[in-house]
Amino acid sequence: MRGTDRESQIVRQVLRAIETGQGLRIVGGGSKAFYGGHCTADVVLNTAEHSGVIDYQPSELVVTLRSGSRMAEISELLAGQRQMLGFEPPDYAGRATLGGTLACGFSGPRRPFAGSARDFVLGCKIVNGRGEVLNFGGRVIKNVAGFDVSRLMVGALGTLGVLLEVTLRVLPVPETELTLVYALNEARALNRMQQLSGQPWPLSAMAFDGEFLRIRLSGAEAAVGAAAAQLAGDIDPDGDMFWHDLREQRLSFFQLPGSLWRIGMAPASAPLNLSGRGLLDWGGALRWLNSDMPAETIHAAASARGGHAICYRGEDKSDWMRLDGGLLGLQRNIRQAFDPLTIFNSGRLFS
Amino acid sequence: MPLSSAFIQKCRDLLGDRQVIADTESLRVYECDALAAYRQLPELVLLPETVDQVQALLALCRRYRVPVVARGAGTGLSGGALPVAGAVVLGLSKMQRILAIDPENRRATLQPGVRNLAISEAARPYGLYYAPDPSSQIACSIGGNVAENAGGVHCLKYGLTVHNVLQIKLVTMDGELLVLGGGGLDTPGYDLLALAIGSEGLLGVVVEITVRLLPLQPRTQVLLAAFASVEQAGAAVAAIIADGLLPAGLELMDKAAISATEAFAHAGYPLEAAAILLCELDGMPEQVEADSRRTRRLLQQHAATEIRTAVDETERKRFWAGRKAAFPAVGRIASDYYCMDGTIPRGQLAHVLQQIGALAEASGLSVVNVFHAGDGNLHPLILYDANRAGDFEKVEALGGRILELCVAVGGAITGEHGVGHEKLNQMCVQFRAAELAQFHRLKQAFDPLGLLNPGKAIPSLHRCAEMGRMHVHSGRLPHPDLERF
């Protein structure tokens, strides 16, 4: 995987923005421009060319990359060593970059079983809103020195600084994976997922598409075979393709017109009973909803179940996510602590 | 400056006399945590029983500008709960109820004073357990685990506290109650849950925790392998990880640790070995058998002189008994020991162990190594005699050099014990001034008056500047040319 070091150009552009007071819109591959609030900054800071491997030690299960590296290329690099990113992020047809993926904090179907994007981040190098280049975390899997700023960057939508380099923990590719499929209704599918999750099966994904419950088993061939035999169910010969399409949000469900919501809640929560179409991932902890109901109704339904709703894609993003009063004030203080002049991605996280 | 009588009276009004400790005899209990080398008698200890009381107390402390040191079970090893002059100690030990076990969602909601082990005990009837298991799990509390991002023997496979907590309720210095995280897995906005975990009491006081529970594994197997050199054992660890195996635990003990524990716990360890590895594998029986075969093959390839597989649960427990008794066993061969905590890339194990040996010899001190090799988390135990004048200063200096060695090879000054009071100087080695300044600004976002656990975890820039001069003058900072992460 080739790459170029654009750190000094990026830092120079940040310093210039600080001088002129002109806000920057951070763009990697541009694959997730639809996500988050409306960004009011119009000068683009491009990170896509700041790419490449800094260090990859397969025997340490650790890789350090520049933030503009394409997810697809990273996956290919790791696959060459029979390793992978455990959080199974989408690569959006090869466009997604590592920086954008982490800034959005996107994780795929393996997330409840292997961990989220932030769980795999060990360290990072950033440039903050003062133009300072800072290193946090490191390259070892246990490190509790100082505040965990590396993980704070994940999901911050670029509002705390520009990610320059990231160190990630990687996982070995499982020896075998196999998908079982069951025709069930939503209530039974939810029930079945909770029952399986409470038992020590080698699960690595569970999703219900409205018609079929699919579960993926991962591990040694003998273990996966034994689990499949005990769990009955039909083997889905196209299982790998299903998980890939779910990860990339390419299933027909994701092509429906209208607003698409991601609702996170405790996995055993009862069905949402909102009008629209749904898809369950993460064993029930993530409820995708395609619905034209008002944002107010959807936020209230999520909140009533102790969860959170995020308008993932939609025409009206004015109420795309909510933070309650105390949290909002604190989050603004944190932003101030990193980016006092609001240089980065103004409006993208909160207005 | 002593606490004002008006403030103390207000505390008594809020809590009642039973929950306020002010007499010297009782205060002694709180003068240190498990890092007993550092002591400071607190002036006042407050023991709230409800979230409301915590909120009211913090608001009161803010009004009177009184600093607050939160304390769980006091088992921390970095002086995080060491009292600070002029501050109150806020003990959370009376808040020790398990609020809910929710088997359907595989989670438990707890007050901060609940003991770590009690969570797994309460979850066991449902076939579930709480994975992080610091060695003090019989006594340490979940609130303290959250404050320190505690690890344990099994975090190689199951992660640290940060990977196993779903939600916390945090009281800010203003007395406001915040919910971080939630019922789902990811929440919008900044990930304050990840930030708060391991923040060592600098950002807020944790009053409720919801943890993730995991299904108990049907099969657990332990292998014990002996090696003729520590280097070979280190190479075997790297090979196991490189091969794609993910053991539940992978522990290394050197010769000194083997002989100390054997005399104490009679685990049947091979006394002639220079090092032993304990490798625990868990999962479905078929998975454990497959992993066990692969592990044995790798251990053989890396010159293990002997490989034993625990034939039954009794033998498995015996294999672990020695490891678990290692610290008390070392306590019998030396009047005092100092437990260090640093992490390194696994490929550096052999090199670093050799260097630690050389540094120890140069200091005239003995070091025993027993640690979580699988995740590169070292716990060198430095033996000394606290009653011998000057010994502890030598220990501190050696400990500091060992941590600087960890940083120089690309590691960190603490893997799971935290910085607390103990490792403030080493923070100056791990981070540059601009990064420390960013930490201070982040703290101010939560605690603008700097009242929460002041002086801990993040050193002042002034302190580092002083230390930098010291290091340059004595030329002790190793590898100054290496970039520091």
Automatic annotation (TrEMBL), chain A:
Keywords for the protein's UniProt record, in alphabetical order: FAD, Flavoprotein, Oxidoreductase
GO molecular function, one term: glycolate dehydrogenase activity
Superkingdom to which the source organism belongs: Bacteria
Enzyme Commission no: 1.1.99.14
Domain FAD-binding PCMH-type, residue spans: 1-173
Keyword Ligase: no
A Pfam entry, by short name: FAD_binding_4
UniProt-listed Gene3D superfamilies: 3.30.465.10
Name used for this protein in its record: Glycolate oxidase subunit GlcE
Source organism per UniProt: Methylomonas subterranea
Automatic annotation (TrEMBL), chain B:
Name of the protein in its database record: FAD-binding protein
Record bears the keyword Flavoprotein: yes
Cofactor names: FAD
Lineage of source species: Bacteria, Pseudomonadati, Pseudomonadota, Gammaproteobacteria, Methylococcales
InterPro entries: FAD-bd_oxidored_4_C, FAD-bd_PCMH, FAD-bd_PCMH-like_sf, FAD-bd_PCMH_sub2, FAD-linked_Oxase-like_C, FAD-linked_OxidoTrans_Type4, Oxid_FAD_bind_N, Vanillyl_alc_oxidase_C-sub2
Keyword presence, Oxidoreductase: yes
Residue ranges of every copy of the FAD-binding PCMH-type domain listed in the record: 38-216
Keywords noted in UniProt: FAD, Flavoprotein, Oxidoreductase
